[in-house]
Amino acid sequence: MKQTVLTLNNGAKIPQFGMGVYMVPAGEATKQACLSALGMGYRHIDTAHAYQNERSVGEAVRESGVPREEIWVTSKLWPSEYGEGKTMAGIDKMLSRLQIGYIDLLLLHQQVGDYMGAWRDMEKAVAQGKVRSIGLSNFESERLEEVCEAATVKPAALQVECHPYYQQNDLKKRIAKYGTVIESWYPIGHGDAGLINEPVFTELAKKYGKTNVQIILRWHIQAGNVIFPKSTNPKHIRENFDIFDFALTAAEMEQIASLDCGKRFYTATLEEQERNFSRWTPAD
Ligand SMILES: NC(=O)c1ccc[n+]([C@@H]2O[C@H](COP(=O)([O-])OP(=O)(O)OC[C@H]3O[C@@H](n4cnc5c(N)ncnc54)[C@H](OP(=O)(O)O)[C@@H]3O)[C@@H](O)[C@H]2O)c1
After folding, report:
1. Helix (H, G, I), strand (E, B) or coil at 202
2. Domains, the chain, ranges and CATH?
3. Cα(52)–Cα(249) distance, rounded to whole angstroms?
4. How many helices (H) and strands (E) are present in the chain, helices listed first?
5. Which residue in the list 22, 42, 51, 165 is annotated as catalytic?
6. Does residue 81 have its Cβ closer than 6 Å to ligand 1?
7. pLDDT tens digits, residue range 136-194?
8. pLDDT for 7-17, tens place per residue?
């Protein structure tokens, strides 16, 4: 089983598949999920300051026995740490929580606050070797182009909600000229039963001897998306990774493309995002 790797616009090679730890409690839960994944061959973990479990991710990376350079770790800065000067201090604090030497990919978590000042500090952090690649998360308004046009270092990745009900084809066209790749959050709709049980997935699961979730994850891989489904269940962690020994046909990819219906699970407007995300400061 050979997992796939994508080459980003700065030449860095990102494992296309990993594990996310959103809503996984800090401490043993996060550490054991990461150790279990790394032990099975996962080489990519997606965390964030806001998830409050970066220390546990760092512990797992250090204790896994896998060489640091073989593991890709992404984390995200919360708007409370945006601003030129302030963001560099936030990156230093993140590095001291993670204790893994450098961050493979650092994202601005939300499109609110002083994101332009934050981006300038992130570019400096790349020059200083603290961070290897930088990108954005949830920038779907015109603020996406505002950052991309001003950037000296163009965003390597854009992490957004993306699954068969919301395939982000327009957004992919908008970022194509910057060479930015899409990272899909909620790749299986946060476990939504309606999405997972779509008849087309059941039919293809039967054909390939796979589960419906594996068919969805395989679709993401062939659609060029980076994915990191979350699980704390070792059976699911193993199952989710077991998607590199089969391929959907072009016709099957088309069948899944036709599920795109504009349905998203997170629907806050930009104004609501401004209000919600400016109120909270994650603990250090
Ligand atoms: N940038 C952002 O704003 C943002 C927002 C949301 C998420 N994310 C990132 O994206 C990652 C993935 O998103 P997500 O965790 O919210 O949703 P998800 O990966 O789409 O779904 C996770 C849910 O599906 C279940 N699940 C996992 N594998 C399964 C399987 N094989 N069969 C059945 N159920 C399965 C999990 O339960 P079990 O644990 O019981 O397996 C969990 O309840 C996050 O962890 C995070 O890293 C980023």
Report:
1. helix
2. 5-276 (3.20.20.100)
3. 40
4. 12, 10
5. 51
6. no
7. 999 999 999 999 999 999 999 999 999 999 999 999 999 999 999 999 999 999 999 99
8. 999 999 999 99
Q: What is the DSSP string of 139-180?
A: --STHHHHHHHH-SS--SEEEEE-BTTB--HHHHHHHGGGTP
Strands of the sheet with 157-161, listed across from one edge? 19-20, 44-46, 72-77, 103-108, 131-137, 157-161, 181-185, 226-227
**CB-based burial label for 152 (10 Å; 0-12, 13-18, 19+):** exposed
Kindly report the protein residue whose alpha carbon is nearest to atom 43 of ligand 1.
191
Atom 48 (ligand 1) nearest CA = 185
- Residue 39: other Cβ atoms inside 10 A: 14
pLDDT of residue 73: 99
Label residue 207 by pLDDT band (50, 70, 90).
Answer: very high
- The DSSP call for residue 17 is B
Neighbouring-strand partners of residue 71: none
Copy the structure tokens of residue 182: 């899409």
pLDDT higher than 90, residue 1: no
Q: Are 160 and 136 in contact (CB under 8 A)?
A: no
Report how far residue 34's alpha carbon sits from residue 25's, in angstroms, rounded to the nearest whole number.
Answer: 12
Which ligand 1 atom is nearest residue 237's CA? 28
- DSSP state letters, 29-74: HHHHHHHHHHHHT--EEE--GGGT-HHHHHHHHHHS-S-GGG-EEE
- 51 catalytic? Reply is yes
- Residues 124-134: tens digit of each pLDDT: 999 999 999 99
- H/E stretch holding 132: strand 131-137
Supply the residue whose CA is at minimum distance from atom 8 of ligand 1: 185
